[in-house]
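User: Good morning. I'm curious how magnesium ion would be positioned relative to this chain. Could you predict the structure with it bound?
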Amino acid sequence: MRKAFSVVMSGICMMPLLTACTNHADTMKSADVFAMDTYMNLKAYGRDAEAAVAEAEARIMDLEQVFAVTNETSDIGRINRANGAPVTVSADTVSVLQTARQMAAESGGALCISLYPVLRAWGFTTGEYRIPADNEISNLLKYCDDTKISAADDTVQIPNNYAIDLGAVAKGYTGDAVMEIMREHQISSAIINLGGNVQTLGSKPDGTAWTVGITDPSAPDSLLGTVCVTDCAVITSGNYERYFTGDDGQKYWHILDPETGCPADNGLVSVTVIGSCGARCDALSTALFVEGTERAVQHWRSVGDFEMILVTSDGELLMTDGIAADYTAKKDMPCRVVHHNEEP
Ligand code: ADP
Ligand code: MG
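Assistant: Good morning! Here's the predicted structure, ligand included:
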């Protein structure tokens, strides 16, 4: 086993840029939360903002308990230890698994939540990083196939030797759950940042759009640009978020290609997805990162219910035509806008 010699994590690098609201009658409530292994911030404006944020915090803590793969008694922990038997779980688990299964199918297997045994072999679950041998990876890949996951009513079943993890979708699902609480409390203006997953409700209290920063993958402390959005999720997957450098000098990151069981290296270093559903955007950002540039563009053209901003490994910015007008560059780099009706 080869040992990693440097590790970098940055879960809070995509900070939303917020303009303070002035002279507004509504209350603003903001809270910082550490959950799901990441820093989160919730901000809501409205008469009931305090109660909404308190309820949202509690919901995040509940979902963390339900989804945590390292907790033996969580839904995911029990599913992974059931040796192939059916397990009774919460409605949240069934719902998030259905989204994941749907995205696994839609992405031709690029999203694969049953890759967990391979992620574990790389040490991405514990931080004890290593580079597994080829035969170790190929043996583990025999137990990775999301079509074998069944999730219906209140029951989930996966085959013996299989294990799943919701790292690619849990934060997006949690963001949707938080926004549901905000709406129940009649909050018309809110922004949340769950470790780089930004979700917005309505517009800023002054009626203008929210400005969300997109991290520069080559300098994660600075911004590549910003997007102006209302009422949607802006969710990024990048190879700079969690990685280690092997003693062969190579960088190994936490998004794996189910075809190879190795870090996905298909021409992209960052994928930002902009759309209405957090869980779907989160699943998509990981899936498109694995798919690589060409497949990602085809995927967007065939579905069309989201926009995306891709950064390629050779330093090009590629964005879909529905977001281009809302993007402001902070860094100079070659940029191409893709349209629905054109050749790739
Ligand atoms: P982040 O959690 O850093 O915001 P992502 O949403 O892209 O980024 O999720 C990455 C996480 O998803 C990994 O840490 C791992 O738990 C899991 N994962 C890695 N590769 C895949 C894959 N191909 N399909 C599904 N889940 C994956
Ligand atoms: Mg994701």
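Residues 168, 237, 282, 285-286 surround magnesium ion (ligand 2) (CB under 6 Å). Residues 1-24 have pLDDT under 50 and may be disordered.
Let me know if you'd like a different ligand tried.
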